[in-house]
Description:
Elements: H1 7-77, H2 83-104
Amino acid sequence: xxxxxxxxxxxxxxxxxxxxxxxxxxxxxxxxxxxxxxxxxxxxxxxxxxxxxxxxxxxxxxxxxxxxxxxxxxxxxxxxxxxxxxxxxxxxxxxxxxxxxxxxx
Length: 105
């Protein structure tokens, strides 16, 4: 003969399983909540760091632009003028002509 089904034991097992499932669900929700708070905290930090990096990049761009302008201005002032060497060569040529004419006479 077949033994009678123990409804009380089945209900107790079901209750324990439901309690464990409920506890697992609560732990999962709590973990997700904690994770979302951490993500939010890190997002705020990342946003702040991004803003700081953008400000530093802008300052660097301004400094580079100022340095390039100063360099271009300095290079423009240091361009060699051919007038002075040309005048020097003309003076040497004139002295050479005068000296050559003096020797020839």
